[in-house]
C-alpha cells in the first residue's frame, strides 16, 4: 500500500514539474513565428546583427594577425640559426686553411692581428 502512495506522489510531482518546465521551454506563438522569419536581402540589418558581424570580423583579423606573426617569428629564428651555423662553418674552414698554410716562418695570424 505504501509503495502505491509513493508511486502516485512521484507521478504527480513529475507532472507538476513538467508543466512548469513546459512554460519555460516553449515560447509564445507570436515570438516563435518572428524567431524563424528570415530577413529580406534588401531590409536593413539590426544593430545586433551588425555588432555580431563586426565582432566576428575583428576576431578573425586578430587570429590571422597572430598566426602570421607567429609564422614570421619562426622564420626569423630559422634564418638566424642558419646564419649562425654558416658563420661557424666558414670560421672553422678559415681556421683550417690558416693552419694548413702556416709555414712556421712568420707569426701566425692570431699573433699578427692589429689591435685598435
- The H-and-E topology, N to C, reads as HHH
Low-confidence stretches: none
The helix content is: over 70%
Main pleated sheet: none
Structural class: mainly alpha
Shape: elongated
Assembly level: single chain
Residue share in β-strands: under 5%
Amino-to-carboxy terminus distance? 110 Å
Number of helices, where a helix is a run of at least 4 consecutive DSSP H or I residues: 3
Mean pLDDT: 80
* Beta strands, count: 0
Please compute the radius of gyration using only Cα atoms: 40 Å
Can you describe what's shown?
The chain is an all-alpha fold. About 75% of the residues lie in helices and about 0% in strands. The chain contains 3 helices and no strands. The longest helix is centred in the middle third of the chain and has 55 residues, at about 45-100. The chain is elongated, with a radius of gyration of 40 Å. The N and C termini lie far apart (about 110 Å). Pfam families: UCMA (PF17085).
Could you name the key traits of this structure?
116 residues, mainly alpha, 75% helix
Question: How is the topology of this model organized?
Answer:
Blueprint: H1 2-25, H2 29-36, H3 47-101
Question: In summary, what is this structure?
Answer:
May be involved in the negative control of osteogenic differentiation of osteochondrogenic precursor cells in peripheral zones of fetal cartilage and at the cartilage-bone interface. The chain is mostly helical and 116 residues long. It has helices spanning 2-25, 29-36, 47-101.
Amino acid at each position: 500500500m505504501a509503495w502505491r502512495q509513493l508511486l502516485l506522489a512521484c507521478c504527480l510531482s513529475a507532472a507538476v514539474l513538467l508543466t512548469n518546465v513546459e512554460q519555460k521551454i516553449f515560447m509564445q506563438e507570436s515570438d516563435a513565428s518572428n524567431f524563424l522569419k528570415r530577413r529580406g536581402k534588401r531590409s536593413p540589418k539590426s544593430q545586433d546583427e551588425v555588432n555580431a558581424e563586426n565582432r566576428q570580423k575583428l576576431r578573425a583579423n586578430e587570429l590571422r594577425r597572430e598566426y602570421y606573426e607567429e609564422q614570421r617569428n619562426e622564420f626569423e629564428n630559422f634564418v638566424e640559426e642558419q646564419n649562425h651555423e654558416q658563420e661557424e662553418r666558414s670560421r672553422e674552414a678559415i681556421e683550417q686553411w690558416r693552419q694548413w698554410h702556416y709555414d712556421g716562418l712568420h707569426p701566425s695570424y692570431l699573433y699578427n692581428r692589429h689591435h685598435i
